[in-house]
Amino acid sequence: MARIETPRPIRGTQDIFGDEQRRFARVLEAFDHVRKLYAFQRVDIPVFEDTQVFARSIGETTDVVSKEMYTFEDRGGDSVTLRPEFTAGICRAYLTEGWQQYAPLKLVTSGAVFRYERPQKGRYRQFHQIDAEVIGAAEPAADVELLALADQLLHELGVAEGVTLQLNTLGDAETRDAWRTALVAHFEKHRSELSEDSLVRLDKNPMRILDSKDPRDRPIADAAPDIDAHLTSEAGAFFEKVTKGLDAAGVKWTRNSRLVRGLDYYRHTAFEFVTDRLGAQGTVLAGGRYDGLIEALGGPHTPGVGWAAGVERLAMLIEVTHRDRLDFVIIPMGEAAEAFCTNLIADLRRRNIYCDMAYRGNLKKRMQRADAAGASHAIIVGDDELANGEIAVRDLKTGEQVKRKLAEALLPGAGATYTFLALTKGPEGLAAGQA
Ligand code: ATP
Ligand code: MG
Q1: What predicted TM-score, i.e. pTM, was given to this entire model?
Q2: What is the mean pLDDT of residues 406-434?
Q3: Which of 116, 212, 271, 313 to mutate to test the pocket of ligand 1 (most atoms within 8 A of CB)?
Q4: How many angstroms separate the Cα of 237 from the Cα of each of 54, 245, 287?
């Protein structure tokens, strides 16, 4: 028979397993915990949308829309796109589902997002984000709350050390127009030194040159005029309220006047949590205020602010992982023992006892696997012992093993079933049991 070749995984996708998966799960658990502390509701939205949802809201000139989207025609001839981020889909849902009635709405979501990028460490084509948004709140208090949530999450994950919150303001519309003019004048002077990408940005969205990673652009971007000279008093006051609020909430921040965000519709607050522990992929969490976005989707003027973080990048920073709880492993040796244990373990699991059964290999192998799986004790049931009404309980850490009378450890229940008795801790007893 001809050898069948196994299809390869798609470039830039991941199979997340073992320790990596535990880190990943921990990020999501901590996020779910913190969002509850801050009274944010969870939503779930589609993985794909009408391409217009992203093209209009993220902005045609951004890298995401111009070169990173997974866009295809479906069988009906409609152009659909796999979500490259969450904000656009959430804002679309806000309008089409009539969620305006709940404003201001504090929402979180998480899941897979897709971007056609060059894969490298910390950069994938299918990756995962956690996302938090406040829609319908124009108050700087919303920005402060979102940043405090992010900060608390990083602390809860134990990664806050070495991660800095960099904060900037992009001002209001008037500020941006004035700043834009100053930026264009500056970049025009250096036209011949700019990268090709930045020449396009110069015509379409000059602010985004500040965000360029191209080494040719960096010195010119770094020498560009600050927004501060152009801030209107309203925009200045808004920013001050955000920074004062962060100080009051005990959230550390630093000003980075070079920081702009990819989205065309950002206003006022823009921020990134950055670390130098992940090489070039140092931004773990990023966001800002997008007061023009919902209008771009055809809705009424609606303020919004939010952030997203890469789950993989956060997971890479986590040091400790906790294994899933496993109280003990049952090891049947022999046919009668296996039948008995099949009944026993079903009963234990129905009683919320975290346990597993090892049914492959010799006794030593099974105990090694039980230990490696993180169980503290093994319950060994042999045919002969069973006939004598006994089981053995082994402490997998110390190797200490004691015989227990079945009648003391387990109570016969109705029919052929056994009921878990008082497997309490103690020199004689089984570990980790509760009946
Ligand atoms: P970058 O500058 O690294 O490309 P970005 O500005 O495109 O990031 P955002 O759109 O702000 O990223 O997405 C929020 C977060 O998602 C980022 O801060 C990062 O942690 C994560 N992220 C973005 N792109 C990827 C990717 N291709 N693979 C893994 N994580 C990513
Ligand atoms: Mg990017």
Answers
A1: 0.90
A2: 46
A3: 313
A4: 32, 12, 20
